[in-house]
Amino acid sequence: MASTTPQASGTPKIETSKPPAVEPQLQPPANSPDLVLVPATPTEGVQADLLNNEEWKGPLTLEQYLRREAILQSVDLTKDGRITGWILTSTSLPANEDGTRPIFASCETYPKHGYVAKDGKVDKVQAHGIGSVFTRPEYRGKGYAGRMMADLGKRLETWQQVDGQINPFSVLYSDIGRNFYAQHGWKAYPSTHIHFAPLPPAEYEAARGSLPAVEDLSAAELKQIPTIDYLEQRLQQLSGSRTGTVHVAVRPDSEHFQWHFAREEYYHEVLGKAEPKIKGAIHRDTGLGLVWLRKYAADPKEWRLYILHTVLPPSVENSPDTQAVMAALLARAQREAHEWDLPVGVEVWNPSDLVIAAAKKLKREEHEEVKIVTRDMDHICSLRWAAGGNEEVVWVANEQYAWC
Question: Which CATH superfamily is domain 3-188 in?
Answer without folding.
Answer: Gcn5-related N-acetyltransferase (GNAT) (3.40.630.30)
